[in-house]
Amino acid sequence: MNAPVDSGPPLRGSASSPKNVLLGVTGGIAAYKTPDLVRRLTARGCTVQVVLSRGASRFVTPTTLQAVSGRRVRDDLWDDAAEDAMGHIELARWADVVLVAPATAHFLGALAAGLAGDLLQTLCLATAAPIVVAPAMNRQMWASAAVQSNCRVLTERGVRILGPAAGEQACGEHGMGRMMEPADIVDALLERRDGPLAGLKVLITAGPTREPIDPVRYITNRSSGKMGFAVAAAARAAGADVTLISGPVSLATPAGVRRIDVETAEDMYREVHRAVPGTDIFIACAAVSDYRPQTVAKEKIKRTESDMRLELVRSPDTLASVTALPNPPFTVGFAAETHDVEKHALEKLERKRVDMIAANLVGPTCGFDRETNALTVYWRGGRQHFGESTKCELAGRLIALVAERYRAERGSGTPAASRGQKPRR
Ligand code: PMT
What we know:
Strand order of the largest sheet: 13-12-9-14-17-18-19-20
Largest sheet: 8 strands, mixed
Shape: globular
Distance between the termini: 26 Å
Number of domains: 2
CATH superfamily of the largest domain: CoaB-like
CATH topology of the largest domain: Rossmann fold
Number of helices: 15
Number of strands: 20
Bound molecules: ligand PMT
Structural class: alpha/beta
CATH architecture of the largest domain: 3-Layer(aba) Sandwich
């Protein structure tokens, strides 16, 4: 839980596009961003009713929030005039979703404990609507056992947790604990019904794998996960329902993306095959270890005077195993090459039987663990080069091309879920 999380996909069913958003604001410095959050929600067609906790008005004024929401801000359970207009139980029923942003450590504790100490806490107990929280606090507070335990309780009860994000904090420290940006919160909350991948399920792998040698050592590679995470964010921005299976990285989960963390190539293979039924597009961006130690020592291997040899065996090839399924999704591989990029990429396109392959030159100074990259994408009968640019920019272009090729090859693209792909476990 100490990792950044979005504990669920965008709201589904009747609340897939919540119209009435009850926005709870609690007392943290990130509250200054809430007028922007309200503005973005109203721009997407939501009616926003703001409810402030006692501490919130120290960071943002009710007048500002009233001006941007166009509704009287509520902050008191004992406000007779407000209760006469719409009582707190009525308000709890009115909400399609309760969003608490920022959610302080204190508020998360109160919610986990089921307290009804103020109007916002009472509303959370009284509502049948989904509850979504965007925590914001100092990184040590976020990492504390108490906050993590409260978050686990809340997740088990179905509360969705957005973020927090990593970065510079108001207290001057750097780390995990910033409130997710308002634009990302809105994207995570509201399902996109447009975009070139709307209605499609996209499965993406990212990052390296770690193959243990003994309890303290492992074999890995230079992948940071940046390219795969950027592809996941771009697919989500294009309207897809995105699942991201990631090796060990230290990156925040893109907003609205479901994330599964794995360690080894075998874990990745297993989780991909669990997630692949119903998938329309599979994009394999992970740098999966091709080999793993044949045996893993139970205890730390001691240094001896003589040389030592590691016996390695092949790891399963996740990408090739997906394209070998009876009814495979549209599949995009990556090829990481240090030389003869085109030759090796075209060989992998055929050998792994993928629909497209995105090739990049890699080494200690390019491809891996950098903000920029360059890609050449190949498919049968075509190619497209994307010159050096940020991984975010490249990911957006790659996703636009994948959407185009997917439509070209799979016609109107009846989603796999409707084609009745068989689960394979
Ligand atoms: O993570 P970054 O630091 O941002 O770096 C990005 C990147 C360089 C890792 C990325 O752009 C990239 O090239 N990813 C693929 C790396 C790789 O393992 O390539 P490959 O040529 O060895 O493998 C070919 C394809 O088979 C890949 O899609 C890979 O995910 C897949 N594969 C490989 C081996 C294996 N056992 N299972 C697999 O699924």
